[in-house]
Design brief:
This protein has 15 helices and 13 strands. It is an alpha/beta fold and 372 residues long.
């Protein structure tokens, strides 16, 4: 067996985990001798079981903080478990997403080991990359940018310019794997003449999400003429387990016609959508555009993820609309009407905005260099 170790430590969302999952799925198809193995702190680790991958789960920084585990002890445990995994399985490759040294420098325990393995770093565009973080990518043999070449800048060490591979955008599912619009809407109980509107602002792990949801729902549900004229029906995520009671109360007050879901991956439902109001995380953003869903993006403030820049690029390409959080109350309904009016134009712009074959291309790149 030749093991490929994926390191996926997430922040508020599922971005790291989903990108690595997408590559691992393609890797299995392309070379059955390569066995993906995951090390993760994500509270979405059950999704790895759902997709059929073995994993080692460690406490996330969130639950460690809430349960009063010392950060120092957590970092030590990460390092010791990683070292044990590497010494036991002797992987032929290491794939790390976003944090080149790990979330707490825990990868330092294995990056310097004298092993015959290839090390790959997935460098999603980031804000606030200082010189030290850029240079630490030198630990890796190859750097994968999960973007179409030219849409963003990926700062890397000067000696790694020939090691950078632009994979295009990475999606967890290929278009050919998705059910038809008719079948999904039938399963959801959506009538043919209804317009299905997704409202999804992420996991509620920041201070503004609850208020954003309340503003959006109040504005839409108080516009009875819009609901009646466009036959709008809401599709919303179920509040996550770590959400506040206030957020749960807001969702409980939604009309009975609302479809509330807990589904991964969300892209499997997207062909049924007509419109969306969404945060601008890497996965949801690319999935909505790939499925050509006219969307108002509401970028959320993140430490590393430049959601604003992502939304602005789509807006400039006439592939989406976007609002800042402080504009929801005053501008949402006008933008929603514009979204309805520009559906055809946006769909055409979306078709050329991104290339969504990144998982397949990234897996090919791994196979080629692992087996070289």
């Amino acid at each position: 067996m030749k093991y490929v170790l994926f390191y996926t430590v997430n922040g508020l969302g599922l971005g790291h985990l989903t990108r690595c999952l997408a590559i691992a799925r393609q890797l299995k198809k392309q070379d059955s001798s390569l066995v993906p193995l995951f090390f993760t702190a994500s509270e979405g680790s059950h999704l790895l079981y759902q997709e059929g991958f073995a994993y080692y789960k460690v406490p996330s920084k969130t639950i460690a903080r809430d349960s009063k585990l010392l950060k120092r002890d957590l970092a030590i445990s990460y390092s010791e478990i990683l070292t044990s995994i590497v010494n036991t399985y002797r992987p032929v490759a290491l794939v790390v997403d976003t944090f080149p040294l790990g979330s707490m420098n825990d990868l330092l325990s294995v990056l310097g080991l004298p092993l015959k393995w290839k090390k790959f770093f997935i460098h999603r565009e980031q804000m606030n990359m200082d010189r030290n973080k850029i240079e630490t990518q030198s630990f890796y043999d190859y750097i994968i940018a999960p973007h179409s070449q030219g849409i963003t800048k990926i700062p890397i060490p000067a000696n790694k310019k020939d090691s950078l591979f632009w994979s295009n955008e990475i999606l967890i599912r290929e278009k050919s794997e998705l059910q038809s619009r008719e079948d999904i809407r039938k399963n959801l109980g959506v009538a043919e003449d209804e317009n299905l509107l997704l409202v999804n602002l992420g996991g509620g792990g920041d201070t503004t999400t609850t208020e954003n949801y309340k503003q959006i729902f109040d504005l839409i549900l108080n516009s009875s003429s819009l609901l009646r004229q466009k036959k709008i029906r809401l599709l919303v995520p179920k509040p996550p387990l770590n959400s506040t009671n206030k957020l749960k109360e807001i969702f409980l007050k939604l009309p009975a016609s609302t479809i509330s879901f807990s589904h991964f991956p969300l892209i499997e439902l997207m062909p049924a959508l007509d419109f969306a109001i969404s945060a601008t995380g890497y996965n949801t953003f690319n999935e909505l555009l790939s499925c050509r869903i006219p969307t108002i993006f509401i970028p959320k403030a993140r430490g590393y993820d430049d959601q604003y820049g992502r939304a602005k690029r789509a807006f400039d390409a006439k592939a989406a609309l976007f609002l800042e959080e402080n504009q929801i109350k005053t501008h949402l309904m006008k933008e929603l009407q514009l979204l309805f009016d520009k559906k055809k134009e946006m769909s055409q712009s979306m078709s050329i905005f991104l290339q969504a074959d990144g998982a397949d291309r990234a897996a090919q790149f791994l196979c080629k260099n692992i087996n070289a």
